Amino acid sequence: MQFGIGFDIHPLVKGRKLVLGGVEIPFELGLDGWSDADVLVHAVIDALLGATAMGDIGTHFPPGKPEYKNISSLKLLGEVKNKLTAAGWQINNIDATVIAEKPRLSEYIDPMREQLQQALGIPIEQVSVKASTANQVGALGNEEAIAALAIASVQKAK
Is the Cβ–Cβ distance between 7 and 43 less than 8 Å? Predict the structure, then answer.
């Protein structure tokens, strides 16, 4: 069994949708980035790529490439899942935490888990998503950004 850690952070800006874990969340600000800037999915992607020593999200999906402009990060996650499968890897589980002062995310946790589970093709019991705040400390605590951390475990398919 192998493990990988992923982290992502994006600034909050006006004029963008807020998408976390593939779920559009009503909020007056959204995350700035080349794709949909879904920090949760980006952290999961990096955790999976790290667990398999296959690089990182920027290597596979470089910002600035027109085909990735405003793309759903769930599509990128699906591509990563296919790459892992082709290389003989099986995903055991994902555990992720979103760090955001606002909005409150509790009602969106289960829909986020479902979106991740569907994209990865694993049972929902193997996908954990949690939410936390930064206790009003730093850019996260000052509502300037949202971040996510993820860990993935994988093993060679039998």
Answer: yes
Closest CA to 108 of 78, 77, 131, 124: 131
Using CA atoms in the order 70, 74, 77, 83, what is the torsion angle rounded to 10 degrees? Answer: -90
- What's the token pair of residue 126? 């193997």
Q: How far apart are CA 123 and CA 130, in angstroms?
A: 17
Looking at the predicted structure, is the pLDDT value of residue 51 above 90? yes
The count of domains in the chain is 1
Alpha-carbon dihedral angle through residues 7, 13, 16, 19, given to the nearest 10 degrees: 30
Quick one: tokens of 75? 């599509």
CATH number for the domain including 100? 3.30.1330.50
The whole domain housing 26 covers: 2-156
Q: Does 79 score more than 80 pLDDT?
A: yes
